[in-house]
Specification:
elongated, 206 residues, alpha/beta, 4-stranded parallel beta sheet
Length: 206
């Protein structure tokens, strides 16, 4: 009989402090300045692959800037905006430039490559444009160790190596897998080992 899994540690709220910066240290510093309300640029646009951490950064900045005197308009996944939402973002950018507010937006491509109105693409390119660069495997391994420790899990290095070579390596996927392994370990009262990982992920033996 499996034991009911209780006490699974919930994921932490996105903050700039718990973002794994990797090669994005400069971007992180600029976003700290933006969140504090003392950044000279009124428009910052982030782009990168799915799972690169764009949404994490936008959510973290939105919370931090909430108490600032000047507002922060946040727009995620801009490539999916319909016509009405594109007009709203266009107007928010113009208002930010005139009133001293700020716009932080993110998408899956640089502004010229977005499937948006031409005038909106040009507005997004007016400010700072940063690519959120992917992490190295070494940095992903640090993330896995840190998250496992936060959850009170003991994850052997061979399991970390296995995950980095057999599953999608974006951080949301890795975090979700840690949740599954935590659950499976508690339910089955077993240590986290490669056989448990393969069983949990329905992966074949090598």
């Amino acid at each position: 009989m499996r034991q009911l899994a209780l006490g699974i540690s919930p994921p932490p709220q996105p903050t700039l402090d718990n973002f794994v910066s990797g090669a994005n240290a400069e971007l992180l510093e600029r976003l700290r300045e933006l969140s504090a309300g003392n950044f000279p640029e009124s428009i910052v646009y982030l782009w990168g692959d799915a799972g690169s951490g764009k949404s994490h950064l936008l959510r973290a900045c939105g919370v931090l800037r909430a108490g600032a005197r000047d507002g922060l308009h946040v727009a995620d996944d801009v490539e999916k905006l319909d016509e009405v939402s594109q007009v709203a973002l266009f107007n928010a950018i113009n208002e930010a430039r005139q009133s001293g507010g700020a716009v932080l937006a993110a998408g899956n491509a640089p502004p010229p490559q977005l499937p948006l109105r031409e005038d909106l693409k040009s507005r997004l390119a007016w400010g700072l444009v940063y690519q959120v660069k992917p992490l190295t495997d070494g940095e992903r391994a640090v993330f896995l160790r840190t998250e496992a420790e936060r959850r009170g899990m003991r994850v052997p290095e061979e399991v970390i190596g296995y995950l980095l070579t057999h599953v999608r390596r974006d951080l949301p996927t890795l975090a979700a897998i840690l949740d599954e392994l935590d659950r499976a370990s508690l339910e089955r009262q077993r240590q986290i080992t490669l056989p448990l990982v393969r069983d949990t992920l329905n992966a074949p033996e090598e």
